[in-house]
Here is the input.
Amino acid sequence: MPTATAIAHPNIALCKYWGKRDRALNLPAVPSLSLTLAPFSTTTTVEWGASRDELMLNGRPGTAEESRKVFAVLDLFDSWRPRARVVTQNDFPTAAGLASSSSGFAALVLAGAKAAGQARTVEELSVFARRGSGSASRSLFGGWAEWRAGERGDGLDSYAFEIAAANHWDVRMLVAIFDAGPKEVSSRDGMNHTQETSPFYPAWVSSAPHDLPAAKAAIRARDLEALGKVMERSALRMHACMMAADPPVIYWKSGSVWAQEVVRSLRSKGIPCAWTMDAGPNVKVLVEAEHAEVVRAKLAVVAERVHVLEPGGPARLVEPG
Ligand code: 2P0
Here is the structure.
């Protein structure tokens, strides 16, 4: 049976995706920008032509909902496709504070196309990955990636692309863990609820696109101070928007605020660094490699643990044998 294996890294958004212009096609209301991060990765094998659709996720059978999402993405390759067996494994803890769905769907579409014998452009693969999970559209790319919101109703212009390669800038992303438990509100539910009930949502949608040009200029210039301003602004506006939902969506814990204070304190001492947060209490801090150890040590005082990640390469096929 045709089989292929692919590997992809997760990514963290510096300019956030929050809100959808089309739920069925999973189209974002705003553009976003991210950094793909190694060494964490997901490895996914697709066996095209199995006896039945079957998902194995980290050594256990996928739930009905997980399976539905995975096989709906494989349906995009061929609505009359043969049944498939998908085996996917994360080499990082689910509680590592990183979205395994971003690396998972990126690896799935790359392996799926190869197993199906289809030559797809990376833009097409990004569109397919987006249908599984929005942030996965960006994990096909290494380094710094932008995901266009697009304008078309069919969403074919809403894909990601690389802005700068992983080796463009020697930075580290420190992930400070404050709560290893499962999320209280999933990103998807939190996003939809914010869109439906937050009076700040229209302001978020109209302001967020302006962050992209500023972030890209800062990345090009390797200017952490300028990038830090944009990334903290994006995270704060996204969280302010969800805190204003009814009832509010609050992912922050006391540790999240301590970590933000650590970052501000280090910055006041002349160490450039900036934080971001996603749909959970963990805080991610961007810093140049030369300052990573100083920042890690300070975060370690307040966090349960700190992961040190670096820019990773694009999703890639793994040759058999
Ligand atoms: C992001 N997040 O840009 C934003 C910031 C979380 C906060 O994308 O509904 O799993 O599957 O498209 O991509 C997490 O949500 O949501 C996310 P769906 P996804 O990284």
